[in-house]
Amino acid sequence: MTDFVVSPPPVAAIPVGGGGKFPVRRVYCIGRNYAAHAVEMGGDPDREPPFFFQKNPNNLDASGEFPYPPHSGDVHHEVELAVALGSGGVNIPVDRALEHVWGYAPALDMTRRDLQNEAKRLARPWEISKAFERSGPIGLLHAAAKVGHLERGRIELTVNGEVRQQGDINQMIWKVPEMIAYLSEYFELAAGDVILSGTPAGVGPVSRGDRMEVRIEGLQGFTVKVV
């Protein structure tokens, strides 16, 4: 017997390399965290204060398929490094931030670009363009205890074998420890939180039938089919 008046939803989780699942509590996403991408999106590549939006925990999806969403004709890929926290807190110092990282995974932040552009024009929130079903394809999560903390390494996305996005994670404007410290000033971070750490230049549209391949040096890559 429980006190719930309806059945609780299943816990959103990411598969872990070597076995097990990582439960997802919240998903924070940083915008324009690579200089070249900031430029291509019409922003300033200088080090301005970071800004974040959120996806829903169950948007992260490891099925290997991305269903093309309704009400959009311009859906873009954004390859990202996902950072999973094993602990949290408030006002975390930058020099202690990596102590809270459990692991890393390659991921995608799929975006209804046409709806995002309309939201920007009207100064409205982005959730309708970012937090839709299965909008966060993700690969296996790798424990930092095994792969170390990723401070550099190639990040790349291909579509049907053609390289669309490439860069190095050391090109992030706001590094992982800085993102954790900044977020902890505004939110109480906790185990299960995931941070999507921004995308390099080259974002672009996908179509049904496309095959996306995500690779981040030091992690196992993954493939997603647009269906």
TrEMBL record:
Domain of life: Bacteria
Metal-binding recorded as keyword: yes
Domain Fumarylacetoacetase-like C-terminal: 27-226
Metal-binding among keywords: yes
Pfam short name (any one): FAA_hydrolase
Keyword terms, alphabetized: Hydrolase, Metal-binding, Pyruvate
GO molecular function: acetylpyruvate hydrolase activity; metal ion binding
InterPro entries: Fumarylacetoacetase-like_C, Fumarylacetoacetase_C_sf
Database matches in PANTHER family: ACYLPYRUVASE (PTHR11820), FLUTATHIONE S-TRANSFERASE (PTHR11820:SF90)
Full protein name: Fumarylpyruvate hydrolase
